[in-house]
Amino acid sequence: MQEAIPLNWRKYPERYRLEGTHCEECGQDFYPKKNICPNCRRKGKLEDKQMPREGKIISYSKVKASHKDFKDETPYYVALIELKNGVTIFSQVVDSLDNEVEIGAEVEKVFRKLNDKKYGVIAYSHKFRVKK
Amino acid sequence: MTGISAYGTSIPLRRIKVEEIAKQWGDNPENIKNGLRVKEKTVRNHDEDSATLAVEASREAIKTNQINAKQIEAVYVGSESPPYAVKPTAGIVAEAVGATPNLTGADLEFACKAGTAGIQAAIGMIKSNEIDKALVIGTDTSQSSPNNALEYSAGCGAGALVLDKQGEIAEIKKTTSYTTDTPDFWRKAHKEFPDHGGRFTGKPAYFKHVINSTKNLLEQTGKDKEEFDYFIFHQPNGKFPLKAAKKLEIPKEKVEPGLVTPKIGNTYSAATFLGLSNVLDRAKPGQEILLTSYGSGAGSDSFWIKMKQQPENKLEKKKPEKTLEDKINRKKYVDYGTYASYMNKLKEVY
Amino acid sequence: MRDVVIIGTGQTKFGEKWEKSLKALMAEAGVKAVKNSKIKGEEIDALYTGCMASGRLVGQEHIGALVADQVGLNPIPSTRVEAACASGGTALRTAYLSIKSGEHDLVVAGGGEKMVDVPTERVNYALGGAGDQETEIFNGATFAALYALMARKHMEKYGTTEKQLAEVSVKNHENGAKNPYAQYQREISVESVMNSPEIASPLKLFDCSPITDGAASVVLTTKEKAEEKGKDYIEIKASAQASDTLNLANRKSITEIKATQQASRKAYEQSGIKPEQVDFAEVHDCFTIAEILAMEDLGFYEKGEAAKAVEQGKTKLEGELPINPSGGLKAKGHPVGATGIAQAIEAYKQLTGKAKERQIENPKTALTHNIGGTGATAVVHMFQKPSKEE
């Protein structure tokens, strides 16, 4: 299902560059971006901050039954990845050889196509691959 | 002066062997391998295209040399397989590396020499003092018609260079070109796969332009062939560059380091960038490089590149952690069906 | 403060109901509930209906209006409540609050979903709305994949095995086989679960609840009114709800659902009933791992101990703590909006001795647990059989 164009465009900094939010007040990093700091709420002082592009796998799953949008790449791995600053992110894990995807594996971010429907804008975003 | 201060590469993980394609169409793989001097080629995954490869190559260059992306004032992307016919890859790359918005950008097309045309454009902007830093990329995920000779060699890859007035790695001292209207290889606007002139792509096309452009460079600079340590030629297969070397009376040892097509296929606009990267990975301070690209249609751009004089260990730090060879050696093979699916040769009916 | 009770229930059979539209299902359940409650339509003050994804599944919003219209109850107020898979439970809670607050005296809380009209991919897309569209679904998450991430971590941390997860499914099918309203009324074996196709490792097809059409309704009123009518009823001793981050990645832990812990804690406090005093529970087993997490997060078993308890048969109908006597979401079916209500119906049937083949011996207290998404919403209700005053 095609995502709205302006919605995707607003998310370029988050999806292309892993840009999140940092709260000056409580010192915590957040991804995805926050409009209100969950800790400080109105007292929070938010600013843009790039998340580190490396981390490790906390948990993963090999998806064999997927949405139509992802039919071409099924099966594929998804994972929860803890970035070097402690922020956890959900993403696909690609380009791994057999058995490389496991809990604790070190991964790095790559820039990939998420979605390319025939009549619409191509959606690019982050994915991760096991560091070798 | 204008020179190269950073470089980066990106090739897909997957490969398909000549044997696998030959099996599909009943060809003799040994004949193909001997004729083209190609063993296997790169295959992009569903989620890769010339834009994603361009971004990855650019990121490597920027990260290795800690370049402040906001200082990049131009992004030129050369490709014949951009994701959009109208909507520049340059914009996507600029956003992805964080260079937006105070910069210029454009996508260029000149078959396999679109990337080097981008280098020349960047040199113009830098030498005329309009800008200080430019990011130039050659990237392709080229298509080839099923059951056509091109299938054996059309590969995917991207190479990126950051050019500026400092030339921390090497200086680009001179560039010359040789351009004509030669119908050797083309793809009309709404066609999926390209067409080519068979043997016409040899002497009147590739060799005429590569050799004349190289000769132009040697003449205009007054340099002797012997002064160059490396020659990088455009490489649609593993044979043409060696043949060109023979015609120019250059020892093949000087050409081989810049010849990567045998292992990854012809990466079109990325080919000379990747050949150059393979050379830069091993080049030493002070060494001299002659690079000649070729784009069907047709034209060649030649460059005289000289490695900056500096302590060797300083130079090594400016090279990416992973060499192109490291990336070439990390691979996963696919069969023909998977390859056809990845390259969108299987059409969906709406 | 008033005591709120359930005086009657009604539901459609759950399953693939090709001939029945959403309207038909809602009407059928509602009318049955009203009939079984021995009340007249005129007595109903308001309707609350849980429905998660009618927009994406049948192109219809404004479900509140739809239901009132369909059952001929215009002009009473009718509201749709949505909390993803917890829509039913939150509809029940909203209905409960409307009586508790004194605003209404008798209301109907229902839920329904029409899922089989569209192809499975569209259903998965619709269900994806329960997660974070922009960061989970966009990146290729399916619900099975999100729960699979939790399962794998639980397995790594506590040694839970795939076979133990399979036992949850087997038990629920055992119970479902005794439930005439269940989608699947046949037993299955551990082997068949283990051999079923993988959906998102380590979860397989039989670890996952099915796609189901269905609707369910309960009639709520004050204890006073129920006594007046001389109708048997069960007391709602607690209604509690909690929220957590929409996406799984921002949770503090993925081997527990904090919203369940918080809602159940409040429910135990409110009702004065402790976990060990709960006689049985209907929990949200959208995937087998979810039942394991629920057993732990509801305080029935220590973290890491639930899987063993299932393996040892402790949560079977005859066990020390029957879980999902109805067959759970797995065997009974999961018409999303209806589930939270259907759980309350099982509580009613068991506590009033109407569960027939599935009847647990003399239960006095019941807990129902309904989750939205991967745990962003949790609703817990506590029911009690009224104590007979001599």
Number of helices of chain C: 15
Q: Biggest chain pair contact, residues each? A: A-C, 35 and 33 residues
Could you say which structural class the secondary elements and strand pairing of chain C correspond to? alpha/beta
Mean pLDDT over the full residue set of chain C: 96
Major sheet strand order of chain A: 4-5-6-8-7
Shape of chain A: globular
Order of helices and strands of chain C: EHEHHEHEHHHHHEEEHEHEHHHHEE
From the structure provided, what is the oligomeric state, counting identical versus distinct chains? Answer: heterotrimer
Q: Count of helical segments of chain A?
A: 2
Low-confidence stretches of chain C: none
Radius of gyration of chain C in whole Å, from Cα? 19 Å
Structural class of chain A: mainly beta
**Beta content of chain A:** 35-45%
Portion in helices of chain A: under 10%
Name some characteristics of this structure.
heterotrimer; B: 350 residues; alpha/beta; Peroxisomal Thiolase, Chain A, domain 1; 2 domains; nine-stranded mixed β-sheet; three-stranded mixed β-sheet; 12 helices; 33% helix; globular; C: 390 residues; two-stranded antiparallel ribbon; 15 helices
